[in-house]
UniProtKB/TrEMBL annotation:
Residues 178-390 form the Tyr recombinase domain. Keywords: DNA integration, DNA recombination, DNA-binding. One of its GO terms (biological process) is DNA integration. Signal peptide: none annotated. It comes from the Bacteria. Gene3D superfamilies: 1.10.150.130, Intergrase catalytic core (1.10.443.10). SUPFAM superfamilies: DNA breaking-rejoining enzymes (SSF56349). Residues 75-157 form the Core-binding (CB) domain. Pfam families: Phage_int_SAM_3 (PF14659), Phage_integrase (PF00589). Belongs to the 'phage' integrase family. This is Site-specific integrase. InterPro entries: CB (IPR044068), DNA_brk_join_enz (IPR011010), Integrase-like_cat_sf (IPR013762), Integrase_catalytic (IPR002104), Integrase_recombinase_N (IPR010998), Integrase_SAM-like_N (IPR004107), Tyrosine_recombinase_XerCD (IPR050090). GO terms for molecular function: DNA binding.
Amino acid sequence: MSRPRLTIGTFGTIGFQTSSNGRVTARARYRDWDGKSRLVQATGDSKRAAEQALKAKLAERTLYQPAGIGLTADSPFPDLVAYWLEDLDLEDRLSITTRQLYERNMRTLVMPAFKDLTLREIGVARCDHFLKQLAKHSYNRAKQARVALRLALALAVRHEVLPRNPMDHVSRLRKPPTTPNALTPSEVNAIRTAIAFWETGLSPSGPKPDGQLGAIVEVMLGTLARIGEVLAIRRRDIDIVSALPSIRISGTIVAHRGEPTQRQDHPKTAKSRRTVALPAFAAEAVRLRLARRDDASLDALLFCNRDGGPLTTNNVRRQLRHVLDLAGIEGVTPHMFRRTVATAISNEAGVDLAAELLGHTDPAITVQHYIRRNEMVNPATAEMLERALGKET
């Protein structure tokens, strides 16, 4: 009669053998995750000691161990990080930018605190304390560290190296209250004036103007597109001859580490791919820019360097900052133009249209990060109170 088949992760009857020197060896068949039964043994000074040693050995045996992973609960944390990064590359579902961001955050924010620990030593209390200490200095850094640490430990749980993810039980990060900052119409016009003066070439310092910065700002104000999306606009994306001029936002500029700056054939998200009607000021800026471009091919970029290649977002930011510093205007970033336009659209037609123009999937993101709160209460309250509580005549 055949013996009953072991289920995965279980062992059979323990057998004992005593050697000539009195040492006892305990043996049992153990069925691994791959379905194969293997003989596992341990030795002790007595039958009881040998049995305990064998059971401890079986308990430590990993139920699932992909080829080459070699991780256990006693593995150092850097080993898990290395395997996690390899796993991200194998999945190949993240953009290069996001993959590099995860690696940077892990190595600069998380590793300094966990590099000398084993996986077994990383518990809820340690993770919770780490995030709270980091959040004291920067909420954003704590948020980014939390994402990277959670993903790496989740991989250890999926591969049954750890029984649970300690990050599932840390306390919630509390974001400091902030109010989105947007420009007023007079501030927008002051920026236009400063850029126009600099582009005349009369400015005493700074890089020689090439006539693109003013047009870039006008297109950002007219489309609510991100700076990378504006710099990725091609001739084929522009319809300037129709009764309703428009631009299709279909890509962005990326600069991956160790690679030249290039145009990516899709924007940040799927919903970010959109066609935007142009106001008159943006349409005029596009017409003037097209008239100055020598390259008539459909794939020619609207804004480019001297070789026709893409401008880098960092260089445009640096140029804008320099020009506005000369004019005494501080704190303006390309992203502030998005908040400015989003606030204007929200005031005129509501947050849903502002979210659609921004390319957001959730209007809550628009409200939280882009719409400047109007502190003026509806003035109709004054008439209501006058009718209810006004002095009798």
